[in-house]
Specification:
This protein is an all-alpha fold. It is built from 15 helices and no strands. It starts with a helix and ends in a 46-residue tail after the last helix.
């Protein structure tokens, strides 16, 4: 294996093995590991930015009356919180994992289109800055809600156009990343790594990449139609001109429950009667199933039209999609970070701190969002900066939980991520997890700058390098 991974004994190969240094290493990065790191750092930065907006929302809602912001700014905060979290934190975060892990898992030297990989990342920086900078435009940031439904999008100021432009750029980045992932997986697998032997993570990204290529042009089309409605006299979503404002939002909510339920039974059946140990990655995986299942059940309730007449646009909806999105995305990414960070950094994270982060996050998350179910059932509408006194106690509880959840992520960065990045901690072995299989555990920890430059020879199961 050393012949495949480590060419340090060959003098003529030295210039391949030494990583570039200084700012050029990152600005001109074409190595999949460096670009993965850039995506993950950008994602966490946007997570904190979106989280600060969320905490401003919760600070305003801590008690009845207007405390900190006016209703218009409140709507800007809710809109930008959603857009930044989905397009700035969650999507780039998963692309970061894809960049880091897919070449390692399939035995490829790098991603198929290394320079396009660099371009797709650096497109995100101006897009993210444009989104954040919209707060400083005339009239403030978009306040149409993060779903950007008409007719509110037709009534916004110039920041709406900036937001549409930023989403176009982020969409182009996603499409480029998806093409890269598909080509890498289909064309660059090591000999013997058939699709049916490929790890589940790479499979999920292959499917996701195809879905992104299918849906991002649809989103781009919808927001372009919004743009032409705003400036060029079209009436796609304007009923006064024969358009249909509901056309933007036609989604079959009930259907999503079937494959989701199948997945949950899959995960539980996989764990059933298994010999499990509960280190931090497994805690987040199990916590994910618990929280995600709750979100799935509330989604079923919202999909029933007679009930949804009462619950639509209440805090029940806010509780539902945060249970799905935070669990389905953030908890999964935390599990992935704890599982793979020894391979990335070469040191083991502090297990005690990891467990503190898990329990702190899980408890604070439920304290924040579980009371919102009761607020919604009692009739509190979402996107309101003020509310009657009857909703005060649950809102105060949710705000306290929200600040605790935010602090948990600051703790995660400063006491878990940073020490690992600085190399502080017990040295990670090549394969730190008992029973872990896959080519990523066949390379040293930390993973060398160049891996699998020569296609590796694999065993029959394609999970071990044999030469």
């Amino acid at each position: 294996m050393s012949a495949v991974l480590d060419h340090h004994d060959h003098a003529h190969d030295d210039h391949h093995d030494h990583a570039p240094s200084g700012w050029r290493r990152w600005v001109y990065a074409t190595n999949h590991k460096d670009i993965g790191t850039l995506y993950l750092l950008f994602s966490f930065t946007m997570l904190i930015a979106g989280g600060i907006l969320a905490l401003l929302i919760r600070a305003e809602l801590f008690q009845p009356g207007l405390q900190l912001v006016n209703p218009e700014l409140f709507n800007q905060l809710t809109t930008m919180h959603g857009l930044i979290m989905v397009f700035g934190a969650i999507m780039p975060g998963f692309v970061g994992f894809a960049n880091w892990m897919i070449p390692l898992q399939i035995g490829a030297a790098d991603m198929a289109f290394a320079r396009m990989n660099n371009f797709s990342f650096w497109l995100m920086i101006p897009a993210g800055l444009t989104l954040m900078g919209s707060f400083f435009m005339p009239g403030g940031a978009p306040a149409a809600g993060w779903t950007l439904y008409a007719p509110l999008t037709l009534q916004m100021g110039p920041s709406m156009d900036a937001g549409i432009f930023a989403l176009h750029v982020l969409g182009a980045s996603s499409i480029m990343g998806s093409i890269n992932i598909i080509v890498t997986i289909l064309n660059m697998r090591a000999p013997g790594m058939t699709l049916m032997k490929m790890p589940m993570f790479s499979w999920t990204w292959l499917i996701t990449a195809y879905l992104l290529i299918a849906v991002m042009p649809v989103l781009a089309g919808a927001i372009t139609m919004t743009l032409t409605d705003r400036h060029f006299g079209t009436s796609f979503f304007n009923p006064a001109g024969g358009g249909d404002p509901v056309m933007y939002q036609h989604i079959a909510t009930m259907l999503i429950a079937v494959p989701t339920a199948v997945k949950i039974f899959n995960w539980i059946a996989t764990m059933w009667q298994g010999s499990m140990t509960f280190e931090t990655p497994m805690l987040f995986a199990v916590g994910f199933i618990f929280v995600f299942t709750m979100g799935g059940f509330t989604g079923l309730i919202l999909a029933m039209a007679p009930i949804d007449i009462q619950l639509q646009d209440t805090y029940y909806v806010v509780a539902h999609f945060h249970y799905v999105l935070v669990a389905g995305s953030l908890y999964a990414m935390f599990a992935g970070y704890y599982y793979w960070s020894p391979k990335w950094t070469g040191v083991m994270y502090n297990e005690t701190r990891g467990k503190i982060h898990f329990w702190w996050s899980l408890i604070a998350f439920n304290v924040t969002f579980f009371p919102m179910h009761f607020l919604g059932l009692a009739g509190m509408p979402r996107r309101y900066a003020d509310y009657p006194m009857q909703f005060a106690d649950f809102n105060a509880l949710a705000s306290i939980g929200g600040f605790a959840f935010g602090l948990a992520q600051v703790y995660f960065f400063f006491f878990i991520v940073l020490p690992c990045m600085m190399g502080k901690g017990e040295k990670a072995p090549q394969s730190p997890w008992e029973g872990a299989e896959g080519l990523e555990w066949e390379v040293p920890s930390p993973a060398p700058f160049h891996t699998f430059e020569t296609p590796p020879r694999l065993n029959a199961a394609a999970n071990k390098v044999i030469g």
